Amino acid sequence: MTYDPIAIGILLGTFAVLILIRTPIAFSLGIASIATALYLKLPLLIVAQRMVAGMESISLIAIPFFILAGQIMSEGRIAERLINLASLFVGRIRGGLAMINCIDSMFFGGISGSAVADVSSLGSLMIPAMQKKGYSKDFAIALTVTTAVQAVLIPPSHNMIIYSLASGGVSVGKLFLAGALPGILMGLSLMVVSYVLAVKYNFPREEWKGFRNALRVILDGFLSVGVAILIMGGILSGVFTASESSAIAVIYAFILTFIVYRDLKFRELLRVLKNALITVSMVFLLIATSNAFAWLMTVLQVPRAMADWMLSISQNKYVILTLINIILLFTGMIMDMAPAIVLCTPILLPVAMRVGVDPVHFGVILMFNLGIGLCTPPVGSALFVGCAVGKAKLEEVFKSLMVCYIPMLVILFLVTFIPDIAMWLPNLLMK
């Protein structure tokens, strides 16, 4: 099919209008796809087929299992144990509680793979605790929200699996490894900001509770982060695939939460399954409608037009990457993560590859940008959950958010322009 400006206008315009009137994004994508298909006189069955095709990949099997594993562990007292473990590393440093917030998000990100789960589980503990120690409410919320972005980078991230599907089959194992170091660097940069503010405002250190307590905390913490170690160890050793590791993660999470620690009673399992099913349904509906929308954009040659436009501005790799970052940051502000991945990948990945960017490296750039979008208005889901948990209005938190955005953007551009930050681990361990 040839380039059709009217059809493109209907597709993008309908979607934009529906978003502005607060229609759920999955329905906005589906309605825009149907309207465009009607204009093009395409059978609506094709739209339905594209939606179903978007969910037929074997790689997607891992997503519901990872979501369920994260749900099981977040419902228990795992967050509390991870906070105690983080306290051993940085608690006695000035502003230790703020740094604990950064590190426990690294640990929890390796369990849940969800920024929203991170904020809701850890935020309910860390935000009140930071306020009691003299931290301002707005800084406590802003730090909790921004550190949660590590969850979309540090493995296992189910969003990496969605990108693997959208990109045509980039190795999930390589994507997991590529996101680890950038996620850790982002957390470290926020720790630096926390320390500077702690020195300026004389925030307190945490108390040392003795070696006997430390040994118990280490054991509990090691068991809690064991699921992430199990997943990556299994994938790297070739014992099991990413999909198989997700099922093993569920078994591990179940044994740890229901049998070892007994944080939850067996009668609560049905509630956990129900909550996980709701999340899975939302994710798969977004994937389905996003796939139909992305297919229509491909049919209408939008990716080719976008590539031609960007390359007409410059052939310079760094200029193109800067443009890609700007586009992705803006997209993250107005669109949820799963549909943004499915829509942006077929448009921007070919452009990035034409200037020599590895698809794995691009995946990390994509995740990082859209992760920042989770804590930026007007659509940032992690931001709104953080404000709800902290009982604050968005405008009250925004000043402290701006402080936290700065290190995140610095690490983003370092990861963008220095590929080895993302590619070192996958090149070393999965040649």
Largest sheet: none
Mean pLDDT figure: 85
Q: What's the N-to-C terminus distance? A: 39 Å
Helix/strand-derived class? mainly alpha
Strand content: under 5%
Number of helices: 20
Helix content: over 70%
Per DSSP E runs of 2 or more residues, the count of β-strands stands at: 0
Uncertain segments: none
Shape: globular
Total separate domains: 1
Report the order of strands and helices.
HHHHHHHHHHHHHHHHHHHH
| Radius of gyration based on Cα positions | 22 Å
Question: Could you explain the architecture of this structure?
Answer:
The chain is mainly α and 431 residues long. The protein has one domain (5-429). It is 78% helix and 0% strand. It has 20 helices and no strands. It has helices at 5-20, 25-39, 44-53, 62-75, 78-90, 96-112, 115-132, 137-147, 158-166, 172-201, 211-237, 242-260, 269-299, 302-313, 317-334, 337-354, 359-373, 381-390, 394-417, 420-429. Helix 10 (172-201) crosses helix 20 (420-429). The longest helix has 31 residues, at 269-299. It is globular and about 70 Å long. 51% of the residues are buried. The model has no long low-confidence stretch (mean pLDDT 85).
Summary keywords:
431 residues; mainly alpha
Summed up, what is this model?
By secondary structure, the protein is mainly alpha-helical.
Topology:
Elements: H1 5-20, H2 25-39, H3 44-53, H4 62-75, H5 78-90, H6 96-112, H7 115-132, H8 137-147, H9 158-166, H10 172-201, H11 211-237, H12 242-260, H13 269-299, H14 302-313, H15 317-334, H16 337-354, H17 359-373, H18 381-390, H19 394-417, H20 420-429
Helix pairs in contact: 1-2, 2-13, 3-13, 4-9, 4-12, 4-13, 5-6, 5-11, 6-7, 6-8, 6-10, 6-11, 7-8, 7-18, 8-18, 8-19, 9-16, 10-17, 10-19, 10-20, 11-12, 13-16, 14-16, 15-16, 15-17, 16-17, 17-19
